[in-house]
Amino acid sequence: MRHPVFVLLCLTGTVALSACGRGNSDAEVQRALKDVNVIDESNLSDIMLTVGDPNEAVTYFSNTLKQNPDRPDLKRGLAKSLVRAGRAAEATSIWGSLVNSGQGTNEDRVGYADALIRSNEWPAAEAELNKIPPTHETYERYRLEAMVADSRKDWKKADSFYEIAAGLTTKPASVLNNWGYSKLTRSDFAGSEKLFIEALTYDPKLFTAKNNLILARGAQRKYDMPVIEMTQKERAELVYTLGLTAVKQGDVNVGRSLLEEAVETHPQHFDAAARSLAALDGKVVN
């Protein structure tokens, strides 16, 4: 007779356990959904910061930050997006708010210094870089340190920082190009030429380094084209740069020949070179 009671108790216990299990499952589901939302949001933030349209990214981070005003990752995303959108002056206020809130990192201060440099606020950028401990050794930090030293014409420090920065990245083409341009402005044409060539070994498609290389060679009266990778259109543009350099240095006949070559080489009509050539020959071009 006691069997039905036992079965009933067992069933009651099973129902109770099921209810508890459902409660635990519901809580776990909610936590899982929350985790998924965070992951989805994180993925979306990453997309916005890399392949997304910069202005769309600004809108996304601005709207999300209004709903979560205390989240440093959203402030960071907004500041980076503003820089990508060419709105560095606006980014400085966001970076400043973040680094002064106690939630910022050394890398955030580097980002702040970068935005200040882009806004032509060099003393403020230098002040921010000075607040970063020397143990924070990153490519971006030393790249900015080199630029600040350049702005102060402290060439010894600039060279040291450029060298360190180049050694901290697997893609040093950009910083080598900057270093070469620094030497170009100091009239160290041979030194700059070597750096531009080195930059092109890492990124053969970096046109600014190609053009700077031509300027460095032209300044040394090297009027032959270097052996570098270039398209037909690029060759025409580089020959044009070399022609103008020759004219400015008084080598007018060489410059004229180079301008003529630029016009003939370009796959389409090269208006700028044609105008320069006409001006050199004293012709009026409408």
What would you say this structure looks like, in words?
- By secondary structure, the chain is mainly alpha-helical.
- The chain has a domain at 52-135: Serine Threonine Protein Phosphatase 5, Tetratricopeptide repeat (Alpha Horseshoe).
- Helices cover 76% and strands 0% of the residues.
- The longest helix has 49 residues, at 2-50.
- The radius of gyration is 30 Å and the shape is elongated.
- The relative contact order is 0.04.
- It holds the Pfam family TPR_19.
- This is Tetratricopeptide repeat protein.
Determine the N-to-C terminus distance.
115 Å
Radius of gyration: 30 Å
Structural category is mainly alpha
Profile the largest sheet: none
Helix content: over 70%
Q: Please state roughly what percent of the residues sit in beta strands, choosing from under 5%, 5-15%, 15-25%, 25-35%, 35-45% or over 45%.
A: under 5%
Q: Poorly predicted ranges (pLDDT <50, ≥5 residues)?
A: 1-23, 31-39
Query: Mean of residue pLDDT?
Result: 85
Number of helices: 14
Short description:
The chain has 286 residues and is mostly helical. The protein has a domain at 52-135: Serine Threonine Protein Phosphatase 5, Tetratricopeptide repeat (Alpha Horseshoe). The protein contains 14 helices and no strands.
Helix/strand layout:
Blueprint: H1 2-50, H2 54-67, H3 72-84, H4 88-99, H5 106-118, H6 122-130, H7 139-151, H8 155-167, H9 173-185, H10 189-202, H11 207-219, H12 232-248, H13 252-265, H14 271-280
Helix pairs in contact: 2-3, 3-4, 4-5, 5-6, 5-7, 6-7, 7-8, 7-9, 8-9, 9-10, 9-11, 10-11, 11-12, 12-13, 13-14
Protein name: Tetratricopeptide repeat protein
InterPro entries: TPR-like_helical_dom_sf
Pfam families: TPR_19 (PF14559)
